[in-house]
Amino acid sequence: MxxxxxxxxxxxxxxxxxxxxxxxxxxxxxxxxxxxxxIFWLLLHGICCLISLVLGFxxxxxxxxxxxxxxxxxxxxxxxxxxxxxxxxAISNPLTNSANDLLVSNSTVSSGVVVGRHGIRIRPWPHxxxxxxxxxxxxxxxxxxxxxxxxxxxxxxxxxxxxxTYVRTFQTLHMTGVMHSLMLLPYDVVWIVVEAGxxxxxxxxxxxxxxxxxxxIGFNQKMPNTWEGRHRLETKxxxxxxxxxxxxxxxxxxxxxxxxxxxxxxxxxxxQNVKWFGAVSVGILVHSGGADETLLAAAxxxxxxxxxxxxxxxxxxxxxxxxxNKLAGWHTFNSLTYxxxxxxxxxxxxTVLPRKLEWAGFVLNSRLLWKEAxxxxxxxxxxxxxxxxxxxxxxxxxxPSKVEPLGSCGRQVLLWWLRVEARADSKFPPGWIIDPPxxxxxxxxxxxxPDAPPELPPNEEKTINQEQTVKHSAKTRSPRSKxxxxxxxxxxxxxxxxxxxxxxxx
Amino acid sequence: MFAAEIYMHRFLLSSLVRxxxxxxxxxxxxxxxTTCDLMPTGLPLPFKSxxxxxxxxxLISSIWPxxxxxEGADHFFIVPHDFGACFxxxxxxxxxxxxxxxxxxxxxxxxFGQRNHxxxxxxxIIIPPYAPPQKMQTHLIPEKTPRSIFVYFRGLFYDVGNDPxxxxxxxxxxxxxxxxxxNNPLFDISTEHPTTYYEDMQRAVFCxxxxxxxxxxxxxxxxxxxxxxxxxxxxxxxxxxxxAIPWEEIGVFVDEKDVPNLDTILTSMxxxxxxxxxxxxxxxxxxQAMLFPQPAQARDAFHQVLNGLARKLPHxxxxxxxxxxxxxxxxxxxxxxxKPW
Lengths: 506, 341
Description:
The complex is a heterodimer.
Chain A: H1 2-16, H2 36-55, H3 59-67, H4 92-107, H5 130-151, E1 159-165, H6 171-183, E2 189-196, H7 201-208, E3 213-219, H8 227-248, E4 253-256, E5 262-263, H9 265-271, E6 277-279, E7 281-284, H10 293-298, E8 316-321, E9 327-331, E10 362-365, E11 404-405, H11 406-410, E12 413-417, E13 489-490, E14 493-494
Helix pairs in contact in A: 1-4
Chain B: H1 4-13, E1 28-29, H2 49-63, H3 66-70, E2 75-79, H4 91-97, E3 107-110, E4 125-126, H5 133-138, E5 149-154, H6 173-181, E6 187-190, H7 197-202, E7 204-210, H8 219-226, E8 229-233, H9 247-250, E9 252-253, H10 262-267, H11 271-281, H12 284-290, H13 301-311
């Protein structure tokens, strides 16, 4: 019978307590339910049942939690009038459970760890403390330094980076990229910047922000407008830098960082392993001006491609190894597929092709260049005997088989070659500083473009992503068909901004 | 996690310490796979485990005389379930049942360890939970990858299925970790199951190993293998092979009541201490001791167990009972246990 079960459970609980309950319940088992106290308990029991039903959880546990502190274990004073309840039909179970709960907490008093419900401790302001965050970062910094000492490069040599550059629209963009890569290095870096057209303030301003030791050399020839000419001039500039290294007897590892290339941090760690002359694999990001769909698809990048598959969508230049990880040959750039479709002028909309083997993929020990060095190997030609028209530094070697392939034998692509340039007549604010500050924005309808779209409402804010699709029926051959000029707002003259993205299609 | 019983059996089958002559044996091993009784979901069901164990003991005691000779004092059993030989996953029920009466005299090799707890017998050997060695090997990343995560944890904070009100699971400690540090960028904690779990552990400085329903967790093993300093949040826990591995020196122990101050505790540790712990963790013998590789290698967990057993030898003469003497009460325990399996 339900009620007698209840009675007996009450007896159990009572007998489990130290102190007698204040409830005047008779302890004889055959007590009738007619006594007022038991009716009271029953009513209370019913109310608690209903509350449980409504709330949806075991109300009793919550009550126990509130009444009994969780850190003490001497919680055996059964003065509560509330009864453990259950929504199932087995009423005796939870009662014995609760009794056991209390009994259990009694028995584990020696362990100090209480079984049962605990509070979730939340501190008053559960947010990070800034000074602790700084501390944590210092700890991480120290751990990483230790890791580098243990597993990284032992006794790193200083790096000599040769970069040919010249003043143009995208110069800041490219140079900042290289500069930031160099600033992150934990090694000593000497950055030799050779500038075509002589030393200019603009370039000086850019490289002064780098914080690494820089050497700014002027080369008194203007950069020609064709890619062919540019490559040749860049070669001359690099040789000039190498000559400076020779004269100054600079010590370290020489690498060629063209300003528009992208270098991964692993590259700099890997080239520390070079002994005399090394080569890495270069991913060629050949991008077309946007017109040719097939070329686009072919050049679609999987920039993380580490394998040097023959049919990979990113062509890779670099050393090729045979099965025993020895240099067997070279992967070079196959320009046949692009025959007739490559860019000639620097601002062509066509594909810009690299040379067969780019300078950027080679690293040398600076001692190779010195006139007199102790253990300079005999398979190196003297720099003076090499002319000015060499294709790549392999011409410096008598024996090209001595080249060390780096990056797990050319399997890792550690840098990417890219050439992106703006139109030759594109204007940009000098030093990329807008002075005086912009005041008025004039709507583009003022500018008499031939196929101007319908009038736009004048607006005061800069609309940055306003894409003007300018329709041209130009073929890929004709130059000047792609607008890559930047927008600038100065009082009086306005140019539309055309974002130089591939997504813009005619 | 519970596969240790199977691998231990396999190891002993082909091990050099095994002898087929019972008269010269020091220890007797009875392979009983108590966690292999599975629910339809694949999780182990401990309800019948006492009966399984009991029936097994009855079998060996009736066929061979070696059990009755010592009432099991020179036998050992592997009980890697949540609360060891208490054979239940809920702590209250486990405590209520206590250790199976039949196993009162035997040596228990278990993963559970908590000081002053009913389910931890004196003289038990604590082993680490099983973690798959090959799987962890395949997920190793180069050691020079810089450790950039400060604190890492992946797992449940609230067990909504079994503890909908909160406050029971992990004695509220995991929930406290979540509530206090979910907005803290130093703490990379979530309930996701990333595929790069092992790789992420190798990129972290500290790995949290809080208690769950039971104080032990495979995270401890994973942290030691991957060189991440374990932060153990479990009051009174007894860690495996405590005699062979200096846990105080390689891990950080945080009381459950100090969880809200976890960030202060961890950031105030001097870097030299942290570097020292990492150096000790990098010790390959420590990693070996946590693993159960197949086939067994030198100094791995199997050998640590054998070491533990060897240390308890020779058996005290008093364990050998005089004929006719009986200590164990074969009918003790809940009535349901007495049913044969």
